[in-house]
Write a structure and sequence with these properties.
The chain has helices at residues 41-57, 68-79, 85-103, 113-123, 129-148, 181-191, 197-206, 210-214, 261-279, 306-321, 335-348, 353-360, 365-371, 373-390, 398-405; strands at 2-3, 9-11, 14-16, 22-27, 33-38, 221-222, 227-230, 233-237, 242-246, 255-258. With 406 residues, it is mainly alpha-helical. A hairpin with a 5-residue loop joins strand 3 and strand 4 (22-27). The chain is elongated and about 100 Å long. The termini are far apart.
Length: 406
């Protein structure tokens, strides 16, 4: 039993300090000794009563004064183990640029749902919905990590609903738009004879990602059965400005992709070109042994960077557009645009979305449908016209029906 400064009993876990303040102390169910101080004895008694009740009911959390940044570092140690280099860089960039400046130095226990709502409202003024979702995903995982450690009672991000911007249903996602058939022909007429022509043609006719093609070796190709085996990807490490061979983007990216005649032709031509490059005096002999067998390479037998290829396409577009009226300008070009063009040509020629999804190596059909929703709309419009034709009979026409009734 504790006493006040005059020697009077105050009760269990209570005492009075020399500065006149009363204090309450007790050890909670986590083995932590917590305390509270106040000049008003009744306030101290009320505090310990509530804290003991919460402890008995199991609805209290561990005492923790760590900031969000400290918990981010703990979460990062666990979460980044199985992530690809690209995903790791993306997560670190989002945390550093969007989360840390506003929330990094706030104690995790002080982060409330109201605070987060205000935070996300501000972020929506500057970033797209996809970036907002990325921010929410990271915050949710950090807060859940803290909750699992019993340091907060609940995860304030989990139940947070962020209203997305209203989209124009008729608006086309330019980033997923394919180049037209006319533009496609003009582009490859322009590229004919270019050192990377085979590579560009292979991208267009397979829909593979940049890194998947850049990492191919002859051993990955089966020209007899017309199939290419995707089991790795060329990746770029920004921190030390190097390239390396790593796993493909997701588990679904491990796949066999069929080759049409143009793709096989591009490969046969590239295999011959590769032999010439290896014999060239310009070929770098002491380069990383894991990359010497790469099929698609530069003049000096080095890996081809995505920026190099996109640069060629950018110049091609400018040169083609110089010869056109402004209304006929070609849309922006990139290696990834060729991937979208492949998917569009597949759909236009009757290949089902689930099959296209397998070709592209998407983790789910939903991903493919979301990206190419504009193709689905066009398809539905075409089917609607056919549906009208199916019931285009005088028997059903309003005027004929009224005439018969009258």
């Amino acid at each position: 039993m504790g006493k006040d400064l005059k020697g009077r009993e105050l009760g269990k876990c209570l005492s009075q300090r020399k500065d006149g303040r009363y204090q309450a102390r007790f050890t909670n169910r986590y083995g932590q000794r917590i305390e509270y101080k106040d000049k008003n004895l009744n306030n101290v008694k009320e505090w310990i009563k509530k804290e003991k009740a919460k402890d008995d009911l199991g609805i209290n959390s561990k005492q923790n004064n760590d900031t969000l940044d400290m918990w981010y570092l703990r979460w990062k140690e666990m979460a980044f183990v199985d992530l690809s280099e690209g995903s790791t860089q993306l997560y670190e960039s989002i945390y550093k640029n969007q989360i840390y400046p506003k929330l990094g130095n706030i104690k995790i226990k002080d982060i409330t749902e109201f605070m987060l709502r205000k935070f996300f409202q501000e972020q929506k003024n500057y970033y797209a919905d996809s970036t907002i979702n990325g921010i929410k995903n990271i915050l949710n995982q950090i807060m859940q990590c803290c909750k699992d450690a019993k340091c907060i009672l609940y995860n304030p991000v989990k139940e947070l609903k962020i209203k997305k911007r209203r989209k124009n249903k008729n608006a086309l996602n330019v980033d997923s738009k394919a180049i037209s058939i006319e533009d496609e022909k003009d582009l490859f007429i322009y590229l004919k004879g270019h050192f990377y022509y085979n590579m560009f043609l292979f991208y267009l006719t397979t829909g593979l990602r940049y890194g998947e093609v850049a990492a191919l070796t002859v051993n990955d190709i089966d020209l007899k059965n017309k199939v290419v085996h995707i089991n790795k990807a060329l990746k770029y490490k920004k921190s030390n400005n190097t390239v390396y061979i790593g796993p493909p983007k997701t588990d679904a990216s491990y796949r066999d992709v069929p080759l049409n005649d143009l793709a096989c032709q591009a490969l046969e031509n590239q295999i011959e070109l590769k032999k010439k490059i290896e014999k060239s005096k310009f070929a770098v002999a002491n380069f990383d042994s894991t990359m010497r067998d790469l099929l698609f390479v530069t003049h000096n037998n080095m890996p081809v960077l995505n920026g190099t290829l996109d640069g060629v396409l950018k110049k091609a577009r400018l040169d083609i557009n110089y010869q056109r009226e402004e209304k006929d300008y070609m849309i922006s070009l990139s290696v990834h645009r060729l991937r979208h063009t492949f998917a569009t040509r597949c759909y236009e020629n009757g290949i089902p979305i689930p099959v296209i999804s397998k070709y592209l190596g998407h983790a789910s059909i939903a991903t493919t449908e979301e990206i190419y929703v504009h193709l689905l709309k066009t398809h539905l419009d075409a089917q609607r016209i056919k549906l009208n034709s199916a019931f285009d009979d005088p028997l059903y026409r309003k005027d004929d029906i009224l005439r018969k009734i009258c």
